[in-house]
Amino acid sequence: MHDATGAERHFETNGARLGKALATGSGLGGLLILMLLIAAGQRAPLALLAGWAVGTLLAGMALAAVGGPIWLVVHAIGLRRGRYAALVTGLLGLGLFAGAQSGVGMFSLAPIDTRSWLLGLAFKLAQAVAVTLLAAGIGLAMWRIAYRPTP
Q: Residue 1: which pLDDT band, with cuts at 50, 70 and 90?
């Protein structure tokens, strides 16, 4: 089944592990939303608490409704390593972040920003990279909770 180096390890999961991974991913997603709110200048404690709560709920819904079917396909074709979990959730995070931007998308800037378009674009791209990497980290944490190598 696998050699002594573990290069051909096979990973399995179960419902209890999946539930724990989803709860962890939802909580970490809420923290990501909280960090974005703080970066945007929000300082009111009640607003930050509400942002974390709503972010946790929406992250859980996104993970279950969008990430779940994608991960089922990835799992079914045998791509069960952490790198695939990081890739799937990183791309999901990037897609949600780009879709949540105001205007047409990530590359649209407010009219006031036209003189500093490149600076605004660089800032948005840096934000997108940061969100993608953090979402990939969330996926890796979820994978670590959900999967165990089979003996």
A: very low
